[in-house]
Structure formats: structure tokens, C-alpha cells
Amino acid sequence: SAAVRDRPVRPPHTLRHRAALDHLREHAERSRRRNELQKKLDLLSVHYYSRQQRVLALEDETARLENDAANTMRLNSTLQERLDAVRTQIESMEDAERRCREQAQEALQQSARRENEIRDEVTSVRRAVIDLLQVADVLRSRTSEIAQFVARQGDLVRTRM
Predict the structure, then answer these.
(1) Which of 56, 104, 120, 142 is a plausible cystine mate for 111, CB 3.0–4.6 Å?
(2) What pTM was computed for the model?
């Protein structure tokens, strides 16, 4: 009859099995590829996390160094104020020494003792000033080193991001 003749021809039994096997092979290949991609994604995720941790560690170190630099600058400022006070004190001591010399004409023995005391104080203060100047120089140098290091770390962080 015409209905039987127009009906689509079904593949033989072996062709259906072959098609099913082909389909299973394609599915297995897709699964294998998906697993490979997932492994690569996992490795990239670990790598990204590691990099992110390094960036965070560098940012923490940079913040610590910036804080150290700020503390050093505050200390340097405090030392500068102390140095200025010591310079003022030296000037004051030198004025007192001059006054003592003028009074030495009136009371030679008393002024001689006072003059020796003032000289000792001036010498001590001068030593303190020299020490403070040396400390200030070291701090300036260290502040410069820290600032350069912070700049390099900042460049590194920006480069890695």
C-alpha cells in the first residue's frame, strides 16, 4: 500500500547501535573535555588566589612601611623641635657666659666658678646637639630609603595588578 511505501525507512538494528555508540563517544569526549577544562579552571583559580594573597601581602607590607615612614617623619619632626630648643638653649647659655665675663671684673672668684659651670653645660649641650644631628642625619637617610622602597613596592603592586 502507499502508506507503507511512504513511511521512512528505519535503519537496521546495527545502524541504530552504531548511532548510539557514536552518540556515547561524543558524550564521553565532551565529558573528558569538560573535566580537562575544569582542571585548568581549578589550577587557574588556585594561581589567581595565590597571586591575590601575594598582592594583599604586598599591600599590607606597603601600608606597614608607609606607617613606619610616617612615624619616622613624626620622630624626625620631634627631633628637629628638640634640636631647635637645644640651639636656643645654646644661644641662651652663650649669652649667660658673656654676662658672667662682665661680672668677673666685679667678683673675679665667684664669676670664675660660674664660668666653669657654664662651660661644662655648654660642652654637654654641644655634645647633645652633635648626637642629635647625627641621629637626625640617620633618620633622614632612613626616611629616604623607606620612601624609595615604598615607591618601588607601589610600582610592583601596580605592575602585578
Answers:
(1) 104
(2) 0.36
